[in-house]
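Please go through this chain and its backbone structure tokens and walk me through the local backbone shapes. Keep your notes short.
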Amino acid sequence: MHDNAGPNIFYEISLNAKIDHNRIWNQSGDFWPALYVASSGSVEVSDNVVAWSGRGMQAYAQARADAPLGAGTRIFFHDNTVLMARDGFAAFWADSGTGVISNPNSNDRGSSDKYWYPGAENGVPRFQWGPSSLTSMTSFVQTPAGQRARYLSAAEVQAVIASAGLPSGPFALNAPTVG
């Protein structure tokens, strides 16, 4: 378990990575995500489980001199599961004003990621795509990052917890199915 010192997995100013099949939980702060791809490019993030963190997964591109050519492009998140502890960003895709992340030519995208929150949608942002904070799954699936994304049912969350060997965290058997 980390305090708010930084992400559990942090891939920064690099190219050509696969980050897959990790189990991450209890990143306690709201600022740092549990899984963070920063100023990098050609990164595939798949089949990870992120649980009970203030912020789930993040791709962010800063305008920085040491960033490699192609930073902020060709980032692909897919088939990940994010179980949120509370309101916060489950998936955050943004940049420092360069527009590279949400540029259609960047080829940044997500596919078939699954999410769970301990409560129903309530107008608080859950997802970020470029400059847009999104409060619903309906809005998120309309972005390149949210393709075929969905909320998990309570039974699916139980199965994820059991198969990944995670602590139950804020999940309760009577937790609402959020959709």
Summary: The radius of gyration is 15 Å. Residues 9-164 form one domain. The longest strand covers residues 15-20. Residues 33 and 55 are 5 Å apart (CA to CA).
